[in-house]
Design brief:
The radius of gyration is 18 Å and the shape is globular. The longest helix has 24 residues. It is mostly helical and about 190 residues long. The protein is built from six helices and two strands, in the order αααβααβα. A two-stranded antiparallel sheet has the order 1-2. α2 packs antiparallel against α3.
């Protein structure tokens, strides 16, 4: 089953970009489909915060004043949706205490000394001779699930490490993966 951003939305919240779908619609679709389909793996993309940041950057480029409040509001909405998703999964006997949730981003933000950095990523390529700065390369990951000890992990991992980690969580191996398994994301003793 695939539910993509180009489908007509079901909420009244306007979309920021053509061909996209607001996070509220993705969340409502999740609420509709998960109890019906009972998938073993789900990928949900919330993009409103990223799109809001880009929109504010476009406003600034047009000489208008950007509004960081709308960006922060989109981040708070994402937090709310993720919390509701986790609660829904833990209230469902099919998923309770057997489900992992991974929350991450697709990129970080420029760490150039620029007050606009809340919407910029990749601009550092111009200042760094074609290399991304550490701010753009750095992302966070939150991984919760049965048997995972609460901890702060200082080891640096990359997006390449997500696929073999997800495979390991599902009891599979990915010998051709370029990444490595995030061992801290596995139940203790695995």
């Amino acid at each position: 089953f695939q539910s993509c951003g180009w489908e007509k939305g079901i909420s009244v919240k306007p979309e920021l970009y053509a061909g996209s779908r607001v996070d509220q619609d993705s969340f409502l679709r999740f609420l509709q489909e998960i109890p019906k389909r009972r998938p073993r793996f789900v990928f949900v993309h919330f993009g409103d915060a990223d799109e809001e940041a880009h929109l504010q950057g476009s406003l600034a480029a047009s000489g208008l004043r950007p509004d960081i409040f709308k960006y922060h509001q989109a981040l708070r909405e994402s937090d709310y949706y993720i919390g509701r998703i986790w609660r829904l999964l833990q209230e469902d006997v099919f998923y309770k205490d057997s489900t992992h949730l991974i929350v991450t981003t697709d990129h970080g933000r420029d760490n150039l000394p620029d007050p606009r950095q809340f919407w910029d990523h990749g601009e550092c390529l111009h200042a760094n001779g074609g290399r991304l700065c550490s701010g753009c390369r750095s992302v966070f990951a939150l991984i919760v699930g049965p048997g995972i000890e609460p901890q702060v992990v200082r080891t640096a991992y990359t997006h390449l490490d997500l696929a073999p980690t997800i495979a390991a969580i599902l009891g599979r191996r990915m010998p051709t993966a370029r990444g490595r398994v995030i061992s801290e994301a596995l139940p203790k003793g695995t």
